[in-house]
Amino acid sequence: MSEGKNNWERRWHPILREWVIIAANTNERPWSGAKVSAIEEKSPEFDEGCYLCPGVTRASGSKNPDYKKPFAFTNDFASFGLHAPLVNRNNPFDNAEPALGTCRVICFTPKHNITMAEMSLGEIEDIYAVWQEEYHTLASNPVIKNVLIFENKGKAIGVSNPHPHGQIYATGYVPKILEREVESSTIYRYEKGSCLFCDLVNHETQKKSQIVLENEYFIAFIPPFARFVYETYIMPGVMSHV
């Protein structure tokens, strides 16, 4: 293969303060793995075998209420616990601390066969209201040091249940990547005298070539140091005027 057909770059990731390898030729690799079709068989609005549908008894034995709006509950098989065993081993090869925290599940809607993108504005606002309530409740617990609200979507990344839902990981520690982001912001402020994220938004607003969507409130763009082809940043548009 001729190197003239390839395009490699090493780009600085200012938020993680590390180099990212950009190899444009990887999109041309032959692919023999699974492919996701845009057309999938439509599921019923209610599935009695789905443990997230209203009125269904989950694997733990708990029964979901007949909810009409977003419904949140503690994951029956959580990775963290507010009452986790108080282990404390301090050895270079066996270092352990309690996995304090909690995992919450949020069913976006009682309907089994839609996604958030297909919901009305009012239904999406109901989800945001639950996010806010959950965040404030979890953050008020002195054990909790970080609250992460997210949604994994689709079979391609291993989602075990197609019912529209998201999760919250509230942990008794701050993940390393967030520590790095805070550190990078502090260093940037010290070195440049300005806001790292504000300057990033300003850069993309002026360049415009990698903006996915922009309105008076938010801007969505692909940063030049994106590590994945689908990596998109969504930030408040007002940051470009700070």
Give structural attributes.
242 residues; alpha+beta; four-stranded antiparallel sheet; three-stranded antiparallel sheet; 9 strands; 20% helix; 19% strand
| Unreliable stretches covering 5 or more consecutive residues | none
Largest sheet: 4 strands, antiparallel
The radius of gyration over CA amounts to: 22 Å
What percent of the residues sit in helical stretches (DSSP H or I)? 10-25%
* N-to-C CA distance: 48 Å
The residue-averaged pLDDT reads 88
Helix-strand string? EEEEHEEHHEEE
* Class computed from helices, strands and strand pairing: alpha+beta
What portion of residues belong to β-strands? 15-25%
Widest β-sheet, arrangement of strands: 3-4-6-5
Number of E-state strands: 9
Instruction: Supply the number of helical segments.
Output: 3
How does the SSE layout of this entry go?
Blueprint: E1 8-13, E2 18-23, E3 71-74, E4 101-107, H1 121-139, E5 146-150, E6 165-171, H2 176-192, H3 196-207, E7 211-214, E8 218-221, E9 233-236
Antiparallel strand pairs: 1-2, 3-4, 4-6, 5-6, 7-8, 8-9
Describe the structure.
By secondary structure, the protein is of the alpha+beta class. It has three helices and nine strands. The strands form three sheets. It has a four-stranded antiparallel sheet with strand order 3-4-6-5, covered by helices on one side. It has a three-stranded antiparallel sheet with strand order 7-8-9, covered by helices on one side. A two-stranded antiparallel ribbon has the order 1-2. β1 (8-13) and β2 (18-23) form a beta hairpin. It is globular and about 55 Å long.
